[in-house]
Amino acid sequence: MGKITGSKPPPGVYRDDPDRDDAASTSSAVLMEDVEYPDSDLPAYQDVPPVAGTAQSQYHETQSYLIQPDLPKSHLSRDETTTITHYPLYSQDAGFLGQMLQDQAKYPPTFTARMVGTHTETRRNKEKQEKVTVTDFDVRLDLTHLLVPSATTHPSLLRNGFETPSPGMKAYRGHRTKTIAAAESAEDADAYINSYVSSPFLIRSFTLNRHIINHDSAGLETLLKSLIGSTNYRGHLQVSFPITHNRVTVYSPCWQNDYREKTWLRWFFYLTFLWIFSWPYLWFVTRRWEVMTVVFPYSSAPEGRNREFVVKSEHAFFQEWKASIRRAVLGKMQGWVDEEYRVATEEAGRDGLTRMPSTGNATADGALGFLQQAVSVGRDVAMAGGWGADS
User: Fold this and answer.
1) Which residues of the chain have a pLDDT value below 70?
2) How far apart are alpha carbons 191 and 251 in whole angstroms?
3) pLDDT value of residue 373
4) Which of 24, 64, 88, 343 could make a disulfide contact with 253, Cβ separation 3.0–4.6 Å?
């Protein structure tokens, strides 16, 4: 594997992300009494209120996201997978491009666990009935920090430069299509960067890929489905692990590359069927380099025993977050479950109910305790009948 040699880059700096829309809207606890549910849908459930003071400080100390720096003249693709930049110097100066790629290699892709529950309802619209899909919950957890090594990470899991395709592997090496390089002509990352910058072709692109390996997604999916199933949820459940911000693409400075990213122009070509001519033209004249990958291991092996982990195992992560996930599902949350939410759940206790304060009066405390037990029993009885089923 070809590599750019040099000193090992330090891990990226962590900081809170106040601009993250979903996280900002759901970082505090959701009060269940603020949401209306059908009587037969969900058991009576009292959620914990937002925490303050100590818990809030602890959240800011422990919860953080690795923020990839913005590149000049760049934007994020609509599916949030690719950062696209048209900055001219990246296509004109090999040293400038190489430094940018090394900087970007410090940052892992955004790795997420997402659990979505839906059911269908039959509703009457004037004189006809129609089926409508209703989202019961859409819970997300950020797993990105589990890809970032620390001082205790095993040396075998530390990243070491870029990976380039072996000679027998098909890849975009500056041609229209994927090619196989001869063994004697194998190139390293520096050579590919230089070939891109010095290419005489006007329309070209260079892409860096970020890749996650050795995460037991199937095992974690089984644990999450079992947890949500324990609430007697009867709807349609989907568990996925989306990966975004996992590519950086440099486009050479030319009007063809500039206009190919214009949304309004794309629609114009779609509606006028000019894409029938433009797409073959762009395919014929564009040269692509997709030969550099930075690998972010989650562990030393995909599954099995005696695995080394960058941070912690899938099972340890599940044990840490299962109470918060269960609470978020029952709360019909649609958004991010973060560290603040987890701390609030721990303070609420095993059953997720707010602890009744002591009044100092034995009679009043007894009545409050009885009320809390009644709420808990009522919730368990309602859960036994199931919730979220199609209707």
Assistant:
1) 1-66, 183-186, 349-385
2) 18
3) 53
4) 88
Residue 228, classified by CB atoms within 10 Å of its CB into exposed (0-12), middle (13-18) or buried (19+), is buried
Per-residue confidence (pLDDT) for residue 23, from 0 to 100: 38
- Looking at residue 34, its pLDDT comes to 39
Helix H segments across the chain? 21-26, 54-62, 94-104, 189-197, 217-229, 255-259, 263-272, 275-285, 314-330, 339-348, 362-384
pLDDT of residue 347: 84
DSSP code of 163? B
Q: What's the first-to-final CA gap in the chain, in angstroms?
A: 56
Question: Residues of 151-170 as b/e, b for ≥16 C-beta within 10 angstroms?
Answer: eebeeebebebbbbbeeeee
Q: Report pLDDT for 366.
A: 61
Nearest to 48 by CA among 378, 243, 326: 326
At 223, phi and psi to the nearest 5? -65, -45
String of DSSP letters for 225-260: HHHHHTTTB-SEEEEE--EES-EEEEE-SSHHHHHT
Cα(391)–Cα(154) distance, integer angstroms: 52
208: left (phi over 0), alpha (psi -120 to 50) or beta: beta
Q: Are 186 and 167 in contact (CB under 8 A)?
A: yes
| Whole-angstrom distance, CA of residue 55 vs CA of residue 370 | 28
Q: Strand, coil or helix: what is 321? A: helix
Q: Which of 109, 284, 62, 141 is nearest to 213 (CA)?
A: 109
Short-list 49, 50, 81, 86, CA closest to 68: 81
The pLDDT assigned to 377 comes to: 46
In the block, residue with structure tokens 């001082």: 151
At position 124, the amino acid (one-letter code) is R
Whole-model pTM? 0.73
